[in-house]
Specification:
This protein is of the alpha+beta class. The protein has two helices and five strands. Strand 1 and strand 2 form a beta hairpin.
C-alpha cells in the first residue's frame, strides 16, 4: 500500500495509524498556524472580502479537523477505536461537527439544512 503526501505537509498511508494521524495533525496545524494566516494577510492587504471570508471559513474548519485527529490519535494510543456519531459538514463554510446539526452554523450562520450528514 502506497502513501501520499499532501501540500500542507501531512502524510497519509505512510506508517502506523498513530503515525498517520500524527502526520494529519501536523498538516492541519501547518494550515492553521502558517498557511491560512499568510493567505489571510494577502487577502486583507488587497481588500479581497470574498477571499477573507473563505479563508476564515477554512481556518475555522481546519482547527476542528486538527482537534478531531487529535482525539482519534489519543483513542488509538489507548488501544481504542475513535467512536464518533454522524459527522455533519456545513456546505457553506465547511464547519465540521459530530452529532446533530445546529439550528445555525456557528461559523457562517447558515441554517441547519445547509449541513450534510456522513455516518
Amino acid at each position: 500500500v502506497g502513501g501520499a503526501a499532501v501540500t500542507a505537509g501531512g502524510g497519509f498511508g505512510l506508517g502506523t495509524t498513530s503515525e498517520n494521524l500524527a502526520g494529519a495533525i501536523e498538516g492541519e496545524l501547518f494550515e492553521v498556524n502558517e498557511m491560512y494566516p499568510a493567505y489571510l494577510a494577502v487577502a486583507e492587504a488587497q481588500s479581497e472580502q470574498g477571499a477573507i471570508r473563505s479563508i476564515n471559513y477554512a481556518l475555522a474548519a481546519e482547527k476542528i479537523h486538527a482537534a478531531m485527529y487529535t482525539e482519534a490519535k489519543q483513542a488509538v494510543g489507548e488501544g481504542k477505536d475513535y467512536e464518533v456519531g454522524p459527522i455533519q459538514i456545513c456546505t457553506v463554510c465547511g464547519h465540521t461537527m459530530v452529532g446533530d446539526a445546529p439550528e445555525h452554523c456557528p461559523v457562517c450562520a447558515a441554517v441547519r439544512k445547509a449541513y450534510v450528514a456522513f455516518a
